[in-house]
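A common beginner's mistake is to predict each chain separately and then try to dock the pieces by hand. The better habit, illustrated here, is to supply every component at once so that their relative placement is modeled jointly.
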Amino acid sequence: MNSNLKQLSTAVVAVLVFALLLLFSSAFFKGLRLDMTEHKLFTLSSGSQRIIESIEEPIHLYYFFSEESSRELTQLRTYADRVEALLDEYVSLSNGQLILTQIDPMPFSEAEDQADGFGLQKVPVGSAERFCISDWLAAMRWTTRK
Amino acid sequence: MKNITTILNREFASYFTTPVAYVFILVFLVLSSAFTFYLGQFYERGQADLLPFFNFHPWLYLFLVPAVSMRLWSEERASGSIELLLTLPITLWDAILGKFLAAWLFTGLALLGTFPLWLSVNYLGEPDNGAIAASYVGSWFMAGAFLAVGCCLSALTKSQIVAFILTGTVCLLLVLAGFPLVLNFFQDWVPALILDLIAGLSVIAHFMAISKGVLALTDVIYFIAMIGLWLTLTRLVLQAKAAD
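With all components supplied together, the output reads:
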């Protein structure tokens, strides 16, 4: 009986450790990655680095991503994680000159109006028509207006 | 460590004394090439990469990996040789790791056998060999995760068929975890954190992330944690069954 209890608790602990690792590894080890592509497709080039380091006045970046409507789109969510990681990399290189604001445009909210104001378009996802993701190129373009 | 390598060597050699190895490698090579060229439209795409090849790996592994893993423990249990194995002067971990690593190396060998595809894509164009290397690593990790699942479920039962079907089903759930099919089922009554956890279990999402050519620590941690979890459960199952 005693050994059964011990085994059961070991199993529970193992599953818990696994779940915690999964949940928090993406937050802790966000930027730690090895870009194995030949032309370093997923790494900032020295040119972009120089540009970002030489920004003189604050630039606001607005990144729109709809948590709610992307719930079931796992691949899009992993893509969003990468976009976020890239934006974070920009911000960390910019000596505080790049200011990133993340916005979740819920339907019928001010944030949605704001997204409309930037000219972002709703993308139909599944059954409902909702805001999805602003591609990071689009996100960059809108910021220059500010 | 020495015990692990002894078991590893013995297990690895046993694949090649039976037809298992030859059938597995042949079927894997034939199917993966057929999928690449016909379903994946390797030529029609006109792009020098191996994406159509790697995209089918999760589905191929779904029924090929359980075929390798099903005999790991249930054969020992059915023939009774498990009693001999577990009374040898080795720890349970030695036996589990030895068997698992042998199976994992074996699938790695089958994977290496696909190198003619890599040669031909290099002959036809200029692919990104870094991304291809990353995809191979990701594919091998994925095979390892499936094998670990199979290892645990094979320890549960004497019947290899049962082990095969159970492993296939669990792996299918792991593959589908990120798809609406599974997520819709949980969506309405589970908090967002748990839903993210379920989506995060998706083997495909992690594999696709690696196969783009970026080896992120989170994806590597996912696969290692997956292997660790299922091997720990294997140990618990073996202990519980030994007590019977």
